[in-house]
Design a protein that fits this description.
With 230 residues, this protein is of the alpha+beta class. The chain is built from six helices and four strands; from the N terminus they run αββαααββαα. The chain is flat.
Amino acid sequence: MTESPAQPMTPEPLEGALTGADDRLLLSHWMPPQAGIVPRIRIGQRWVSTLWGLPIGATALIILIAIAQSLRELPSVKAFIKQYPGIAQAAPSVDSGFPWWLQLQHFVNMFFMLFIIRAGIQILADHPRLYWKRDSTPGTDWFRFQVPVPKGRVWTSKDDSVSIPGWLGLPGVRHSLGLARWWHFSVNLLWVINGVLFYVLLFSTSGVGSCRSPGTCFRRRSPPRSSTPR
């Protein structure tokens, strides 16, 4: 009994239309930029532009300054200011003695946070809306910097994504959610490693042992004075 030859598999229609992807992001073949709108906050059923915060904040600041100036004329406030003038008393300088590794880790910590924040803003720009609930139902957002989701048509993440400046977002390209998440979580891992290393060095050196009172950690103590009279 002879076996029938294997029939060749019919290629999928979608597979035949696919092409090889490049390992680079070519802006000339990418989505065109799309500007967002001024961020808005929902108050009840009404959307309010965050630009209203500028005149409201300036007005509130002027009112607070006027109130503070009027309070200075009260006798009780004058007596308090006279007793506590708020002028720093002259004191000898204190050498905190922070070790070099602690100073370096503080710098590295801020450096990593800069990348984390920029990538987080880029992730938000791919769906520029915030919700109180996890269902993210259109129309239930309380913050957005994109137009409302239109009704009667398909609205995808590509339509919703907006462009942000390259100095603000990372990588700074519209609808680059995958790259933004890679930056965000990769640098998050480095940030956590830096934090773990901080605690290891803190407990393996004299850092914790020198904290006898608030503000005394890593402080260099002066040598003890000799009790022998001169």
